[in-house]
Specification:
The complex is a heterodimer of chains A (494) and B (374). Among the domains of chain A are: 6-179, no CATH class; 182-261 and 406-494, no CATH class. In chain A, 69% of the residues lie in helices and 0% in strands. Chain A has helices spanning 6-21, 24-40, 44-63, 71-89, 92-105, 112-118, 123-138, 148-156, 158-161, 169-177, 184-210, 225-255, 274-280, 283-304, 311-329, 333-350, 352-355, 366-388, 391-400, 409-417, 433-452, 463-482. Chain B is built from 15 helices and five strands. Chain B has helices at 21-45, 48-51, 62-78, 89-94, 97-108, 124-138, 158-165, 168-173, 180-187, 189-195, 205-218, 243-252, 259-269, 296-312, 339-360, and strands spanning 83-87, 114-118, 142-146, 277-281, 316-318. Chain B has a five-stranded parallel β-sheet with strand order 2-1-3-4-5, sandwiched between helices. In chain B, α5 runs parallel beside α15 (339-360) and α6 packs parallel to α13. Classes of the chains: A mainly alpha (494), B alpha/beta (374). Chains A and B meet through α11, α21 and α22 of A and α1, α10 and α11 of B.
Chain lengths: 494, 374
């Protein structure tokens, strides 16, 4: 079930109403039931896989309790099991064809389709949550969860199941045990998050994705460079609004159950450098990578190379962390290059610290902060190219962006004046004005959030503007209902 | 002195209480529904409908939709329609009903309301469905169906047929399941206007919608879409070795009349049971057009089978005007006529129809009295 579907909201609202009416001891089991029902809308087999996955991690968590013998070994085994689980299901594309071919050549039944059928949604998100749980237990940051139902809800909880946010058990389980009181202010916050999320997804992300011709990412050299630049900008904002919109929606829905999920985005394109970018983009995953990859690696290197400014201390932690991030997104060369590029940007940012004391970014003159924001945005946007397409095409896309052709302003003027018949727009070699309007709207939307200083900025807008945005959302939703296009959430693919 | 008396007190900043978003949500929904209802009323009961005449039914076929709405407006403006011309793009650009009507009136003394419903890409299969739908809705006295050899090639036009006929709205119009969506599209004028913009976020929207808007503007109120192009090398037969021609040669070189397509023609002919006169004719194509099918001989063979079939099923076959009477500069290609060709052809067609009436007693029938378009 798609989280922008009317049915999703209706079912979630009904489930929340029942949840509020239930006695407290039945509420968490009820969350498990509705989460399982949500999973069943994809496939009932997913529920089985998730139950096995939960049972395994629950047991491994109990065994990783530091008071028990071999706890650290069990925790390590748990981490490996989770990674293997991810490889078994998610990266099956890489080994199944060969494996199936081998089995077929031996006259045996190939398991490919069965595995693909069982592929649980949001597996990458579940894996990192489980690893953090096991490591937190073994490092005494969290006692092993004794209640299996509570643990299952941590895994299954439907608002965060598909694409996060990546919740830590040590923050999520206490929220589960003592949820917030669902009152008018909380419902207002929920409405703000949901409407913001829907606006980001339906009004900004979907149109921006769809306004880019599909062929642009297949044969980029067939298009004028200026259009490729604008389409990359469109993709840059589409991706952000898609994921930020999704997160806002599920955070809003989760508030109906009194459970506050973590924020995942904080205006990433306002970042003044890449360190800040990664504190603003996919925050829950970035924090996870920081806590479970970056810091352990940095501490380990510091023990080996005592000098703080040692090249390895500067270079390795960000590079390895971002390479892992790339691999988490997909086992492919282009994702690896995307991660490497971000790793490189972080390393370059740290290089000045080798020679002198670095001034914190907020102490820099305003013009340097603005310059930093611009540079970070441009480089992050360029890095989305390998994120979107295979490497050879990415190289062509970058190359194509430099090949500008003169737009046919004369032809446009003649058509506007009525001297030439109207026969389309693409003949003018200009980006679509609709795309420019949606891009401007996306920038304006972020500006509103920046000015309000909160993701729930809808709450502080004047009445007329709130009503106008709601009406715009309804109009776009109505058109989307009848349109011939669809745009699924990008991060549901991870 | 109270604090009110102090002359230089700063004006206290107005405390801005945040508005309730839940209330705004409710207001937004109410205003939106209200706005839709207001627009619906304006489109229904004022001439706004004609000012903003870009409309859509949400189907795949833009030109079909243009014809659908133009016919609706035509019937509304003229109190109905007497003669419907059905066929493909050759009919769309090849007959000007206004010229046909005027010439026929001069020759026969009868003024009829004629509408050109030629839609590009439609073979006899979708046309048979459209003919039934239009006959049930507008009760025309006469349907003239312009057929051609391509109509009977089994593999021709399948995709267009599938896309158009399986559309939810079209299914309901054929007597299939009436869904909420199909009902809304059929009955809501404001939705029909909004549907024109339904693909606003598609990369090809501007190209497609600008073209569609232009075609809306170019199509005359009687459904004729003039084409100003003048074709070249029409007197040279198409070359099977030409890569651009190969698809047509592959489709039609082994031409034979498909039995299912004949059944579709039969269902058009059966409309006479409801009192509609059905005339089947052809467009005056250049003979080089028949090269795709194996030459003029193939066309003669085709007619030898088709004409008796039409007569057996109670229809009237009207031979097309001689192709030689339409000069090359009046053609866009081997089979389409341009604006000059359309005028010439419309006159000749009117003469043939008048001749049919005066000499053979088969006259174009007006719509039955009292049968007014919805």
């Amino acid at each position: 079930m798609n989280v922008t579907a009317l049915l999703f909201f209706a079912c979630a609202a009904l489930a929340a109403l029942v949840y509020q009416r239930l006695a407290p001891r039945w509420r968490i089991p009820w969350l498990l039931v509705i989460s399982a029902a949500f999973v069943v809308t994809w496939s009932w087999l997913f529920v089985l896989v998730l139950l096995v996955f939960s049972g395994l991690n629950y047991a491994l968590g109990r065994l990783s309790d530091p008071v028990k013998a071999h706890a650290r070994a069990w925790a390590r085994a748990g981490v490996i099991v989770n990674i293997l689980f991810l490889f078994l299901f998610k990266y099956s594309d890489f080994y199944l064809p060969q494996f199936s071919a081998m089995l077929s050549s031996l006259g045996m039944l190939a398991p490919g389709s069965a595995l693909q059928m069982l592929l649980p949604v949001g597996l990458s998100f579940l894996m990192v949550q489980n690893i953090s749980y096991l490591l937190d237990v073994v490092n005494r940051r969290l006692p092993a969860e004794k209640n299996f139902i509570h643990f299952c809800v941590y895994i299954f909880y439907f608002p965060k199941l598909l694409s996060g946010p990546v919740e830590r058990a040590r923050t999520f389980l206490p929220k589960l045990a003592s949820p917030l009181r669902v009152d008018r202010p909380l419902l207002e916050r929920s409405a703000a998050l949901i409407s913001t999320g829907l606006l980001r997804k339906l009004v900004l992300a979907n149109p921006l994705f769809n306004l880019i011709p599909a062929q642009a990412f297949i044969t980029p050299l067939d298009y004028p460079g200026q259009n490729l630049v604008f389409w990359l900008l469109a993709y840059t904002f589409a991706l952000y609004n898609d994921f930020a919109g999704y997160t806002a929606i599920v955070r809003g829905v989760s508030l109906w159950f009194g459970i506050e999920l973590s924020a995942n985005f904080n205006l990433p394109y306002y970042a003044r450098n890449f360190t800040e970018f990664w504190n603003r983009w996919h925050i829950t995953l970035s924090n996870w990578l920081r806590d479970y990859i970056y810091y352990p690696l940095a501490w380990s290197l510091r023990r080996r190379f005592a000098q703080q400014n040692h090249f390895f201390n500067i270079f390795l932690p960000p590079m390895v962390t971002l390479l892992v991030s790339g691999l988490w997104h997909g086992l492919s060369w282009n994702m690896l290059v995307w991660g490497a590029l971000h790793g490189l940007f972080l390393v370059l940012e740290r290089l000045p610290s080798l020679g002198k004391t670095v001034v914190p970014v907020n102490k820099l003159p305003l013009w340097r902060q603005r310059l930093g924001t611009t540079l970070t945005f441009v480089l992050a946007a360029l890095a989305w190219v390998p994120f979107r397409m295979p490497l050879p095409l990415a190289l062509k896309y970058w190359q194509g962006m430099l090949r500008w052709t003169t737009p046919d302003f004369l032809g446009l003027a003649r058509t506007v004046a009525g001297w030439s018949p109207v026969s389309g727009w693409s003949q003018f070699n200009l980006p679509s004005p609709i795309l420019l309007i949606v891009l401007a709207a996306a920038i304006f939307f972020d500006h509103l959030q920046h000015r309000a200083g909160t993701e729930e900025f809808m709450l502080s807008q004047p009445r007329w503007f709130q009503v106008l945005l709601i009406m715009l959302l309804l109009l776009v939703a109505l058109l989307a209902f009848f349109s011939d296009t669809t745009a699924p959430f990008v991060y549901q693919g991870f | 002195m109270t604090h009110h008396d102090q002359p230089h007190d700063p004006v206290p900043a107005r405390v801005q209480r945040p508005c309730s978003l839940l209330t705004s949500l409710l207001l937004g929904v109410c205003f939106f529904i209200g706005l839709l209802l207001l627009c619906e009323g304006l489109f229904r009961w004022t001439d706004l409908d004609r000012v903003f005449n870009w409309r859509s039914l949400g189907t795949y076929h833009g030109q079909f939709e243009i014809k659908w709405f133009e016919l609706k407006d035509y019937a509304r403006a003229n109190g109905g329609v007497d003669v419907l011309l059905l066929g493909n793009s050759m009919v769309n650009t090849g007959i000007d009903p206004d010229v046909l009507t005027a010439e026929y009136e001069t020759l026969s003394g009868e003024r009829l309301r004629v509408f050109n419903f030629g839609v590009e890409g439609l073979t006899v299969a979708p046309n048979s469905v459209i003919a039934r739908v239009l006959a049930a809705r507008y009760h025309p006295g006469t349907i003239i169906f312009f057929t051609e050899m391509r109509d009977y090639a089994a593999n021709n036009g399948l995709e267009v047929e599938r896309q158009l006929l399986t559309d939810e709205w079209m299914t309901a119009r054929q007597g299939g399941r009436e869904t909420v969506r199909a009902w809304l599209i059929e009955n809501s004028s404001v939705l029909q206007h909004l549907l024109f913009f339904r693909n606003w976020s598609r990369a090809d929207f501007l190209d497609a919608s600008l073209m569609q808007a232009r075609r809306f503007a170019d199509t005359t109120p009687s459904g004729y879409e003039p084409d100003a192009n003048v074709g070249e090398n029409i007197d040279i037969p198409p070359d099977p070795a030409d890569p651009e021609e190969q698809e047509d040669f592959m489709l039609f070189s082994d031409f034979s009349i498909d039995a299912d397509r004949l059944e579709d023609l039969k269902s058009i002919l059966e409309l006479r049971e409801g009192g509609t006169l059905v005339i089947i004719t052809e467009m005056p194509v250049h003979p080089n057009y028949f090269t795709y099918f194996g030459g003029e001989g193939a066309h003669d063979e085709y007619l030898e089978k088709l004409v008796p079939f039409i007569k057996e099923n109670g229809g009237v076959y009207l031979p097309p005007p001689a192709w030689q009477r339409i000069p090359l500069f009046s053609r866009v290609d081997h089979h389409h006529l341009n604006v000059i060709g359309a005028i010439l052809h419309s006159r000749m067609l009117a003469q043939n129809l008048a001749d049919l009436c005066l000499n053979q007693g088969t006259c174009l029938q007006p719509a039955a009295q009292g049968e007014i378009a919805p």
